[in-house]
TrEMBL record:
It comes from Patella caerulea (Rayed Mediterranean limpet). Its main location: membrane. It is a multi-pass membrane protein. The lineage of its organism: Eukaryota, Metazoa, Spiralia, Lophotrochozoa, Mollusca. GO terms for molecular function: G protein-coupled receptor activity. This is Receptor ligand binding region domain-containing protein.
Amino acid sequence: MFQSTSSFNNRSAKPIASAFLAGDIILGGLFPVHHKGIGEQPCGEINTDRGIERLEAMLFTIDEINRDPSILPGIHLGASLYDTCARGTYALEQSLEFIRASFYSLDTSEFVCSDGSQATAKLSPTKVTGVVGGSYSTVSMQVANLLRLFKLPQVSYASTSASLSDKTRYDYFLRTVPPDTLQAKALVDIVQEFNWTYVSTVSSEGEYGSSGIDYFQQEARAKNICIAANVKIPAKSTNATFDRTIRDLLEKPEAKVVIVFVRIEDAKGLLDAATRFNLTGQHVWVASDAWGRQDAPVKDNQLAAQGAITLELQSTPIKTFESYFQNLNPRGNKRNPWFREYWEAINKCSWKENKYTSTSRNIRYCTGAEKLTRKITQQEGKVQFIYDAVYALAIALDTMQKTLCPNTTRLCRAMERIDGERLLKDFLLNVSFNGKCLIELY
Ligand SMILES: N[C@@]1(C(=O)O)CC2(CC2)[C@H]2[C@H](C(=O)O)[C@H]21
C-alpha cells in the first residue's frame, strides 16, 4: 500500500507533502525536489536535474529489495520521503517528521476528553529507522545535528564536504560518496597533468565551496602551484557579484586556468557573467562535482564554457532503473506527489484534470503520452549512490534481524523498537556488499 500524504506540523497550517510507502520498517529520505526559493519563499522551481530522479531511485531500490527473497524476506520495507528544497532550515523542519514518532505516545490513556470519553490516537507519526540523504552538504550537516540526538543513522548519497568526516560531530552520519579531500586531490592532479603552475580559484561561501577550495589550495601549494586570484562568491549573490568575479579574474590574465568549487547556481551565475563579458575561451574552467554533468550552467553559455573540465564522482548507471524511470507516468505514479509537477516542467505542458479549466489558447496541456526518453548515459550521476545507501541500510537491517530474531523472518520483540545506536555500530558500519554496491561507506 502506498500513498502520498500531507500532514500538518504543529507550527504552521502548511501541509507537509511527502511520498510514503507503508511497511514494517520505514526508511526516511531527503531529496532536493525543488530548488531554493527566492527571498522569503523556502522553495523555488522543481529541480529537474537532481531532485525527482534521485527520489525515484530510492523508491525503485526499495521495490527491488522488497522483491528480493534474500534480504528481509519476512519484512516489507517502506519509505517516508521529503523535499529539502536544497535548504538546510527547510530540511530541518521536514526532518522533524522523522522524529515526531519518538515523542508520540500511542498510550492514549492520558488523552481523556472533558466528557470523560477516551481520546483515540488519530495520527500515529511514522517512526523511521534510518534516513537516506541529503544531497547538499549544508543540508546534511543541519539534519545530522538533529538525527544524532535520536540515534537515527543517516546515509548521504551526495554530500561530499570533508567536514562531514568528523565523527566527533557527525557520529550518526555516513555516506556512499567520497569526501572532497579526494576531489581536491583530483583537481590538483588535473592541473599537474597539464603542467599548469599559475591558476585562479573561485569558490562559493559556505561549507561545500569554502572547505573544498581550502583543501585544493593546500594540495596545490604542496605541489608548487601558485594561486593568482582567489575569489569568494557570497551566499546572496547577484549579477553584479558575478561581474565583479569576472573582473577579478581578468586582473590576473596570466592565470588562464580557473578552479571552480561552487554551488550549481553559482556555476551558472559565473558563466552567465562570462557570456556578458563575451569571454570565449579566455579561461579554462576546471570545476568540482557541483557543476559536474549538469546542463544548467552551460545552457546559453556554450562559448564561455568551451574547453571546461568538470568532475563528477565515478559511478555505474543502474541499468534496470532506466526502464523503470522511463516508464513512469503521472497517471500511474501516484506515490510521488511531485511527479506531475516534474512532468509538466520536463515536457513544458500543463497537466490539468479540471474539466472546467479555461481553454486558454497559450497553454499546451499534457496528454500523458509524453515519454521521459533519454539514453542511459544521461542517468543522473549519483543514482548509484542512492542505490548503495538504501542497500547499505537494508543489508544492515537484514543482518540485525537474523542476529536478534533467529527464529523468525519477521520482526521479533527485540526489534519492536529498533535501537539506532546498535544498528549503526554493530551492523551498518560492518555492511559488506556482495556485488550490490561498489562503494565503501565513508
Ligand atoms: N557534493 C555536493 C555537496 O553539497 O556536498 C555539491 C553540490 C552542491 C552542488 C551538491 C552535489 C549533488 O547533490 O550532487 C552536492
